[in-house]
Amino acid sequence: MTGSSLTGFTGLDWSILAGYFALLVASGILLTRRQQSTDDYFRAGGRIPMWAAAISFLATSLSAATFIGGPQQAYRGDLTYLSSNIGSIIAIVIVSLFFIPVFYRHKVATVYGLLDKRFGAPANLAASGAFLVGRIFASGARLYIAALPASLILFGDIAVGHQIIAIAALTFVGIFYTLAGGIRSVIWTDVIQTVIFVGAAVAAVALLLDRIPLGLPGIIDALRSPGEGAASKLTIFQSGLQGFGPKYNYTVLTAIFGFSLLSLGAYGTDQDMTQRLLTCKSAAKGSQSAITGILIGLPVTALFMIIGLLLYIFYSRPDLMGAAAPGYAVEESRRIFLSFIIHEMPAGMTGLMMAGLFAAGLSSLNSAMNAMSSSFINDFYKRFRPGRDERHYLRVGRLGVAIFGVILGLFAVFSAFWQRARPEATLIDFALMVMVFAYSGLAAVFLTALFTRRGSNGSVIAALLTGFLAVMFMQSRLAGVIAFPWQMFIATGLAFGVCCLGKRNSTTG
C-alpha cells in the first residue's frame, strides 16, 4: 500500500479517540476513591457482580490479538482456529468444577497461595515467579500487537522505531488508569471496552456486507470455492493428513490435547485471568462468571473471523468486487483489517473502530499489570515485609503496577523484533506461542496439587523449570515440525511427571 495510512482519519475520528481515552482516565479516577486496602485494590472486596466479572474475563481472554489477528487468521487461511474452542470448553468446565471452589475454600489472595498450603512457601514463590515471567511474555506480546494500529495512525506505517513510540504511549495510558482504580477499575472499564470493541466489530461486518456487491449466498459460495485447487475458507475442522499431522496448529486433536491444557493454564493458573473470578461473592458465582465469559467469547471470536473472510473477498477477489474493488494493494496481512478501517470507513466510524481496537488491547494490559502487582504483593512482599499497615501495602501495590507496566513495555519492544524473526506465524499464533512457556509448568503443578497426593517443594520448582526449558528447546529447534499446541502437551506431560516425583507433604483438603 502506498501513501500515508492516515487517509480518511479526520478531526472527528481524533475527537472520538480522545473521548475514549478521557473516559478511561475518568473511570480510574472515580473508582480510586473506594480503595481502602489491598483486598479492595486487588479483589474489589468480593463485590463484583457475576456478569461484570464474566465480561472482564472475556475481555482479558480476547485482546488486540483477536481484534487484529482474528481477521488476519481467516484472511490468510480458514476458520480452523475456531476448533481450538473445544479445548477452551473442556478447560473451563474443569476449572469451574475443581479449581475455583478450592481457591474460595482456602480464601487465597492469589491462586498461588493454594500451593503454599499444599506444598509450602517455596512452591508458592516459584509458581508466582513463573506467572510473572510468563505474563511478561504473554502480555508483552499482546501490547506489541496493540501498538501496530497506534503506530499506523500516528506515523502512517508500522516501522519498528514507530512501533516503539506507540508501545510507550499505550504503556503510559495503561499505567495511569490502572494505577488509579485497581481491579474494580479494570473490571468496569473492561465492561465499557467490551461494548466498544464488539460494537465496532459488528459495524465492520455490516459495512463490509454493504460494500461487497454480492448477496450472502454468493459470498458463501465464493468462500466455499475460492479457486481451482484451493481449499474451502469455511473449513472449521481439518480432515485428512492435516487433521493428524504434528505440525498443524488447529485440529481436533490439538484442541483436545493441546488447547485444553493451554486454556487450563490460562483460566486456572494465571492470576491475570483468575483474579477477576476471585472478585465475586462466592465460588459458585466465580464459576458462573468463567463459564459465561467463555460462552460469550465463542460468537465474539467467530465475529472477528467473519471479518477476515469478508476482507478476503474485498481485497483478494477483484473478479467478484468489480468496480467496487479497492484501488490499492495491502502488502502485509497484519495490516489487512487496519487498512480497511483507515481507508474505507466513513468519518467518525474510523475513530470508533480504532477506539474498539485500543479497547481490546488495553483491557489485556491493565489487567496484567494489576494481576502482576497482586502476585508480587501477596506472594512476595507481604511474606518478607510483614506487619505493615494496609496503606503501606496499597502504596507499594500501586508502585508495582507502574514498574510491571514498564517491564511489559520493554518486552513488547523485544516482541517487535521477535515476531520479525517468525514471519510465518500469524499474530494469533505468535500470541499463543509465547504463552506456552509458563503455562506448561504451571498447568502441570496445579494438576498435581489438585488431583494427586504427590509433589513437594523441590519437585514443583523442578517441574516449572522442566516445562519452560522443554518449550524453549522445541521452539528453537523444532519450530515448524511440532506445532505449539503439541509443544504444550509434551512439555506439560514432562513437567507433570517431574512434579509427581516428589513425595506428599500436605493436602489441599
End-to-end separation in angstroms reads: 61 Å
Q: How many domains comprise the coordinates?
A: 1
List the quaternary state of the chains: single chain
| Biggest β-sheet description | none
Q: What is the CATH fold-level name?
A: Sodium/glucose cotransporter
Question: Hey, roughly how much beta strand do the residues contain?
Answer: under 5%
| SSE ordering | HHHHHHHHHHHHHHHHHH
* Superfamily (CATH H level) name: Sodium/glucose cotransporter
So how many helices? 18
The radius of gyration is 22 Å
Q: Please state the second-level CATH architecture.
A: Up-down Bundle
Helix coverage percent of residues? over 70%
Number of strands: 0
Structural class: mainly alpha
CATH domain class name:
Mainly Alpha
User: Rough shape?
Assistant: globular
Q: Give the mean pLDDT.
A: 85
**What low-confidence regions span 5 or more consecutive residues with pLDDT below 50?**
1-7
Topology:
Elements: H1 11-31, H2 38-43, H3 50-76, H4 85-105, H5 113-118, H6 121-155, H7 160-211, H8 216-224, H9 252-268, H10 271-277, H11 283-316, H12 318-321, H13 336-344, H14 349-384, H15 390-420, H16 427-451, H17 457-477, H18 484-499
Helix pairs in contact: 1-7, 1-14, 3-6, 3-7, 3-10, 3-11, 3-14, 3-16, 4-9, 4-11, 6-7, 6-14, 6-15, 6-16, 6-17, 7-11, 7-14, 7-15, 9-16, 9-18, 10-14, 14-15, 16-17, 16-18, 17-18
Report on the architecture of this protein.
- With 509 residues, the chain is mainly α.
- It has a single domain (11-423), classed as Sodium/glucose cotransporter (Up-down Bundle), CATH 1.20.1730.10.
- Helix content is 74%, strand content 0%.
- Helix 3 (50-76) runs parallel beside helix 11 and helix 3 crosses helix 16 (427-451).
- The termini are far apart.
- The relative contact order is 0.20.
- Residues 1-7 have low confidence and may be disordered.
